[in-house]
Amino acid sequence: MRFSVVLGTRPEIVKMSPIVRELQKRGHEFDLVHTGQHYSFDMDRVFFRDLGLPDPAVNLEVGSGTHGAQTGKMLAGLERFFMDRRPDVVLVQGDTNTVLAGALAAVKLGTLVGHVEAGLRSFDRNMPEEINRIMADHVSDLLFAPTETSAGNLRAEGLPEERIFVTGNTIVDAVHENLEIAEERGDALGALGLRRGGYLLTTLHRQENVDSRERLANVLAGLERAGRETGMEAIWPMHPRARKNLEAFGLRIPDNVRAVPPLGFLEFLQVEGGAALALTDSGGVQEESCILGVPCVTLRDNTERPETVEVGANVVVGTDPERISAGVLDMLERKGGWGCPLGERGAGARIVNICLERTKQG
Ligand code: UD1
Ligand code: UDP
After folding, report:
1. N or C: which terminal CB in the chain sees fewer CB atoms within 10 Å?
2. The model's pTM
3. What is the pLDDT averaged over residues 291-311?
């Protein structure tokens, strides 16, 4: 019984880590298959180091490119690897181009495919991630929906009940397993000169935000205004895509915003947990802030994580500066206390169990 665990970007490395730990604990044979979609040290290797993950069996080194070119290279490379290695189960996670290529390459070879974090929907087909999620869900054999809401989305699209499993989200374990390790490892707040509860945290990388000069400029104006009205500095570990486009558009970062390079997971968890509030367009940051009891303002027009909004941990404000600062002021009144709507701990173990049961049956 051999697993292939496909990953390529930082959120996949983080969210696959509880599954990898489970496979290691039980002594199952597995290969980490890296597409190389993310490759800069601080978007890739740092997560293997921080999470103590084994080296990938292969790195396809696909790198950046247009959607078609990037996905096409992955598809060819993954097919070659699977034909050679013949895994019994291929696991993919999330909504990136890596997930689409992994699911498609494996299913066409007749290999059992499990999609971790299945059923999330923003209902916005302009997002490349929405297309990737829909495609991956429809070709996968095992759909690991984190919540009843995501399972409901799958049912509404006619996906059969026997493929759907509500497992919880692996991010719950990724946060809890690593928070303590993070605090033992060093004082990230001290190193950055931050005072617990005294700053805002921002991250931004979505194509629809950072590739648009207008939306990016609006976010900067919103950050400036929120900083002025709260008297707090915003720290911004900057995704390379955001940095590249800020430079290309000639936009200036406001004085109350401090841009720093992307942080490793252990540092980021501490900075996230110590923030007064997170402003983000990241899926993972919406989830993690909810788990950590930190209010979140989502800089998008929609979210595929409505559970975080329903419990009062998150508000979706778009990119209008006035709405951003109003959202910040409103959410700063919330002091946590919500329950975690993303499932109980142990999603990784539940996912591995289901894979084992299914391969026995098959
Ligand atoms: C990708 C995913 C997105 C996910 C995000 C996590 C798709 C369609 N998008 O977006 O869903 O939320 O990862 O961060 O799969 N770059 C570097 N170094 C790197 C990686 C990227 O400098 O290691 C720069 C390159 O200029 C590149 C740009 O970032 O062109 C975008 O990278 P890409 O992987 O295409 O998309 P992300 O925006 O990272
Ligand atoms: N993250 C990190 N350092 C950073 C920013 C994010 O370790 O500087 C982690 C974060 O904790 C989360 C993941 O990266 O687990 C989210 O990745 P990203 O926002 O790039 O992608 P998304 O979740 O939107 O797909």
Report:
1. C
2. 0.98
3. 98
Pairing of β 296-298 and β 314-316: parallel
Query: What's the structural domain count of the chain?
Result: 2
Nearest atom, ligand 1, residue 244 CA = 26
In a domain, 196, yes or no: yes
Name 165's bridge partners.
Answer: 144
Query: Are 298 and 160 within one domain?
Result: no
Mean of all residue pLDDT scores within the chain: 97
pLDDT of residue 336: 83
Which whole-number Å values give the CA distances from 220 to 26, 121, 158, 246, 262, in the listed order? Answer: 47, 27, 41, 10, 18
- Does ligand 2 lie within 6 Å of residue 70's CB atom? no
- By alpha-carbon position, which residue is closest to atom 20 of ligand 1? 38
Taking phi over 0 as left and psi of -120 to 50 as alpha, with beta for the rest, 246 belongs to alpha
Q: Write down the pLDDT at residue 284.
A: 98
Which residues are near ligand 1 (CB < 6 Å)? Answer: 9-11, 37-40, 43-44, 64, 95-97, 128-129, 205, 240-241, 244
